[in-house]
Amino acid sequence: MPKTLFQNVIFTLMMSFLMVYVMICYNICLNVGGMSNEVFLMAFGELKIMWPVAFVLEFVFVDKLAHMLAFRIVTPQDRPIFITLAISSMIVCIMCPCMSLVATILFKKAGSNVIATWCQTTFMNFPVAFFWQIFYCGPFIRLIFRKMFPEKENVAASAVTE
């Protein structure tokens, strides 16, 4: 979807913000035993650390690797929705274990159980991250992105119809 480096930076900032914020809220809920209004505010403490980590990780490493892996499953000639789903799925498959490891090291106080805690955190986070990305976060951020950066042919077509 992003066509330029600037657009890619904006898209990645938006996507990583919403994914990280929701996943932090989810993990806080797991830790405190349920959802409350305070969770939304508590999440901002971890967000200051986790959002930049997620952005750099995705922008520098994960995006390229996810595209490479996705195009082992789909081809550029496939329907765009299949390409989008393949890339999004690969990003979650890579980002979830990486971000779970960062969260385990920084916030879980795992001690000598780092590997076990990381595995548990990853397994608890993966289904939520996957479904949140595929069904809600991804479509929402792509909608906002399309509004911010309409493609030129779409702009020209809408100008003709007005």
UniProtKB/TrEMBL annotation:
Q: Which residues form a coiled coil?
A: none
Record flagged with keyword Nucleus? no
TM region positions: 9-29, 49-70, 82-106, 126-145
Keyword vocabulary terms for this entry: Membrane, Transmembrane, Transmembrane helix
Q: Tell me one Pfam family matched here.
A: DUF2798
The name of this protein is DUF2798 domain-containing protein
Organism, as annotated: Dorea longicatena
